[in-house]
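Bit of a strange request maybe. I'm writing a small parser for structure token strings and I need a real example to test against, not something I typed by hand. Could someone generate the tokens for this chain?
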Amino acid sequence: MMANKKYLLLIVLLFLSGGCSSNELVEEDALAARKAMVMVQIKQRGINDPKTLEALMTVERHRFVPDRLQNQAYDDKPLPIGEGQTISQPYIVAYMTEALSLVRTDKVLEIGTGSGYQAAILGELSDHVYTIEIIESLGLRAGALLQSLGYENIRVKVGDGYQGWVEYAPFDVIIVTCAPRHVPKPLQQQLQEGGRMIIPVGEPYQQKLVILRKLNGRLVQDDVLAVRFVPMVNDAGSTY
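Reply from user aminoacidic:
Good idea to test on real output. This should exercise your parser:
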């Protein structure tokens, strides 16, 4: 076990120090880096749900970052994906996913598709994922990538996530990966009775991650983590 930990740590150090000679990852390097990410960054920090860990091992994160950043795809940090947006730190993706306790029959709404990485993780765990991205270029790119990877269970929409996706409501689970100052009313209304929502709330880049559960028509809130997400914006670019 100790030797295995040393091996994983060596892989992490190689990637953090630019141990790859190219920005592009070959399959063997990507697999080793992904294994190290899951074991060192995620499992050793308390994420233990087997389904979440398996999803993070399955989804190739380097496919969701710009080519020039592929050799950083498995680092313990967010990365820019264009248009002022980021792909979230792997640990935060894992934390939010595990907190939702997903089952295959859950109908899931994601607000803030971004690169499509979180949607792909959700797509490994649920048969019905709906994701909304307000920036057209990102939404179209993520939709094409997810389709090319075979995620027929994921629908992508370009639109204002604050409004939710009323055509497919109600949802058993809502996950929001951009931060409004308050929990959007439409999302509260579109959450199924007994459903759960995880969302960062607060001022730009200084928020708290909260979990909401709808019980008897009312939302019960638990504050779980201090976080920094990009703000939720409308079509005009103003923050909510």
